[in-house]
Design a protein that fits this description.
This protein is mainly alpha-helical. 35% of the residues lie in helices and 2% in strands. The protein contains 12 helices and 4 strands. The strands form 2 sheets. Strands 1-4 form a two-stranded parallel sheet. α1 crosses α2 and α2 crosses α7. It is globular, with a radius of gyration of 21 Å.
Length: 359
């Protein structure tokens, strides 16, 4: 019988390769024709050098660590608590709830440690130049370490985490395979493994991508009309195809949360002109990540579209809102790289339980 680790190593590597092929290749049995789009067709940027020659064992290790609550102070909270595949790598909460809230994840989660901001989905982090709502870090490694030690999120102690992982033979073996030149368990290697895994969260094979490749029949009339309304309203200036996001930061004037102070990007840059500005979020796989914006004060995707259109100078109708919502919610949906939750993790601890609420 093969060990679980061997199966996961092979599975993680196969999923990465097959997903990349699916993203870059169309179905040869379907007819293609030149796509009519309201913007010049552009391709995704190259995958970053950090994804070159990554050992499959490192991706496997990051996969297990992502779901293992051994990394948190209460040993019940994991990365997947706030970034679940059920909620398109978000958590369906207005603002995330960290340790001390038990195993339940998703919209029913309640606890003593609520953070200031909504949990953003993690798709296409590999392409970004800056991360987090205020853009204060530049690498996924920097981003991955923040929730581990934040007192309201996982509140881990580095020495305890290394000690706990080092006491588990399977993790010791996995770290050695993932980092053969530096095989001991360490926080640096842990973060590198988490980053390697998170770089595989790609969305490049949505219906829009197939349409852009010439498979024009994959978009319905409403999706196509919504795409053109999206452009007419100027939405693509910030949510630029094909990623449908950008490195822009803006104040979108969403409702404030009473008693909550959040100055946005100003807290990082120190510039008054950055007050209230937050990054332009990706629209890919956003349909299941409600509520929206940095503080989760807008409940539905349709409400978010309406709010954004109100920020512009153009008149719009309810039909404009409906069609743009259809385009974003359906044409930009892509589950080809949705993470697979492991049946168990090496610590033996129970995994988070997603709220069985509607999706």
């Amino acid at each position: 019988m093969r060990r679980r680790g061997d199966q996961l190593r092979k599975g993680a590597f196969s999923l990465l390769i097959l997903g990349a092929l699916a993203a870059s290749c169309g179905d040869s049995t379907e007819s293609t024709q030149s796509a009519d789009t309201p913007w010049p067709l552009t391709t995704f940027p190259p995958l970053p050098d950090a994804m070159d020659d990554v050992p499959a064992a490192r991706i496997e290790l990051g996969h297990l660590l992502f779901y293992d609550p051994i990394l948190s102070v209460d040993q019940q909270t994991s990365c997947s608590t706030c970034h679940s595949e059920r909620w398109s790598l978000g958590d369906a909460l207005r603002r995330s709830v960290g340790h001390g809230a038990g195993l339940l994840a998703g919209p029913g989660r309640q606890g003593p440690n609520t953070v200031r901001r909504n949990s953003p989905p993690l798709y296409n982090l590999a392409f970004r130049e800056s991360l987090l709502w205020d853009g204060r870090v530049e690498t996924i490694e920097e981003q991955a370490v923040i929730p581990l030690f934040d007192e309201d999120e996982m509140n881990a102690d580095a020495e305890i985490v290394v000690s706990d992982l080092s006491a588990i033979a399977e993790y010791v073996d996995l770290f050695a395979q993932a980092f053969p030149e530096n095989p001991e368990v360490s926080i640096d290697s842990l973060v590198a493994a988490l980053a390697a895994y998170q770089r595989t969260f790609l969305s490049m094979n949505a219906s829009y991508d197939k349409y852009a490749q010439g498979r024009t029949q994959v978009l319905t009339e409403d999706m196509t009309a919504g795409m053109f309304r999206f452009a007419e309203m100027g939405c693509h200036d910030c949510h630029a195809p094909p990623r449908f996001e950008s490195e822009r930061f803006a104040n979108r004037h969403v409702p404030a949360v009473e008693g909550l102070i959040d100055l946005g990007r100003e807290e990082f840059t120190g510039r008054a002109e950055d007050r209230g500005k937050f990054r332009t979020a990706t629209l890919r796989n956003i349909a299941f990540t409600e509520p929206y914006f940095h503080n989760g004060t807008v409940d539905s995707l349709e409400d978010a579209v309406r709010h954004e259109l109100k920020q512009g100078d153009l008149l719009f109708t309810d039909e404009d809102v409906r069609l743009i919502t259809v385009f974003i919610g359906k044409a930009l949906r892509d589950g080809s790289h949705e993470p697979l939750r492991p049946a168990s993790v090496p610590s033996g601890l129970p995994l988070s339980i997603d709220d069985p609420g509607s999706r």
